[in-house]
Write a structure and sequence with these properties.
The protein has 3 helices and 2 strands. It is an alpha+beta fold. Strands 1-2 form a two-stranded antiparallel sheet.
Length: 104
């Protein structure tokens, strides 16, 4: 019996190594891709691996004071040009949208 994906379970399509689609995904380097077919836009995002029960607890070593020390140490560490580039990216991402394709 063939399994039909539900609306919440996306269809998986294996990409052959060395093909054009594999090259495009490599060139994207994790950035979102926008596919357009007959005027219909499809957004393709890289999925981060899910945490498993075998994964360590991300909060196990949480120390709020150490976090604040790191934030203070990083303050001012990027150039004004880099900050402007990141702000422009945020505006671009907002324009592209982040909602699922089936949601207005």
């Amino acid at each position: 019996m063939t399994h039909t994906p539900t609306r919440t379970e996306p269809r998986t399509i294996e990409v052959a190594p060395g093909g054009e689609l594999a090259r495009i995904l490599d060139e994207a380097n994790g950035a979102s891709l926008l596919l357009v077919k007959d005027g219909v836009r499809y957004r393709l995002d890289r999925e981060e691996p899910a945490m498993t029960s075998a994964s360590p607890d991300p909060w196990a070593d949480y120390d709020p004071e150490r976090l604040m020390e790191g934030i203070r140490a990083a303050a001012g560490s990027i150039s004004e040009e880099e900050a402007e580039r990141r702000i422009a990216e945020i505006y671009r991402w907002r324009e592209e949208g982040s909602r699922p394709p089936d949601r207005p």
